[in-house]
Each structure stands twice: as C-alpha cells, then as structure tokens.
C-alpha cells in the first residue's frame, strides 16, 4: 500500500502542477481539498481522469468522489479495492 | 494642444527572454532558456506565494507576471480597472495542447486543466481574481500590435464608463516566443496615452 501512496503522491504533484511540493511534503492523511492542499474543482476533474487513465477506474457518481479524494490514503484504499 | 485625459503610469514588456518594467530591464536570461523555464524564473524572482501560477498556461503566466510587476510600481489596481487586451494567436497554445489530447488515436484524453485555458479571456479572469477586479474586459484578436485601434477604443471605454484606470496592450505568445506589452493607464503621469507614445515604448525593448 505504501508503494501505491508514494506513486499517487508523485502522480498528483505532476498531474496537478504542484511545483512547490515534493512527495515528502505530502502526508497520507492531509486533506486534498479545503484547508489541506487547497485543490479546486478543476483539480478534482483531473483526479477523475487520472483514476481512469492510470488505474482503469471510472467514477460515475460525483458524490463518491468527495469521499474517494479526501486524502491520498482514501484514494489508495479506493484504488486497491477497485482496480482492474 | 489638447491636454491628454489619461496617462501611462507604468508599462511592462516581455520579449524573447527579457522583461523590462518602465523601460528598465528586470530580468534577462539566456536565449536557450525555454519559455516555460523563463516564466518560472520570473515567478520565483517575484517572490510571491501563488501556487495557481503553475497551473496556468503560458499566456496567463506572462500576463500574470507583467500585471504583478506593474502593480508593484503603481500601487494596487482599483477594482473597476478596465482590461483591454489583444493578441494574434488567441489561446492557440492551449487549443493545440487540447487538440493533441483529444485526437490522440492511441490514448485520447481530454485534460480539464488544459481545456479550461482554451479561451484567451481566461487570462483576464485570472488577473481579475488575483487583483480583485470587478470590471469591464475584452480580448481582441488582431494580425499585429495595433495601438491605432487600442488607444481610441480604450479612451472611449474610459470616457463612456467614467473610469480612471485601465490595463491594456498586446500579449502574443507562441511555443517559444513572447511578445508582450502591457500598460497601466491612469489620470496622472508623465507619458500621455497616445498612439505615438505606445509605438515608442513597444519599440524601445530591444
């Protein structure tokens, strides 16, 4: 799982152009939106595309995204449970 | 002789790999530096914390840097500062990037972060957010830098709305080159807001 969270952090930083961050700056449990990393709605769409492209997981219910994208850890848990 | 009602209070030019504020070089880098790296260096030199900068396309980044520099010189922009911009290639950089993504025959993907910049007006939105502007704005597409159009149009817009301030200019960005002149217009200053002056300051950046 740790390998997946590290991979996810690297992908998030690259995909979302978070140039001032490194993998080590991102805690597994830091909220990705709101007061945590401060991601916005466009970032959320990018994360949905990333799940599809990198892990073959399609998110069809936007309400589901709110829980899935809470932290790096919740994303990793969701990928582990759903990846094809 | 008529007394001009508006003046150019500050202006910024970005050409090739150099940036000048009011005619004085602020940053100059080697011509082999990529445009992306050059704009990133300019952002770092500004010494501000605005992570959204890194998500912007090249057009927005160049405009962001120029407006940031001018406000340091002239003070904060009033919230009704009009924005009257122009260029030749519109948002071509992002349009092309988006097209390459969606027409990729092996792995077609639409990136929301790219798509959101496929209009030049988005740059006006970005600086309106940054400087808390709630103002009139327009983005013209011309073949070339046209102060003959911009000056009377801007003047009419200012007079019509009884506004004191506007940011106007030319912001042409391609994959590797940047040809930008933005100027901040106000009620006072030493450089009159005229076609002749705008031709002069556009050409002074070697």
Automatic annotation (TrEMBL), chain A:
Organism: Parapedobacter defluvii
Carrier domain span: 2-83
InterPro entries attached to this UniProt entry: ACP-like_sf, PP-bd_ACP
Entry protein name: Acyl carrier protein
Domain of life: Bacteria
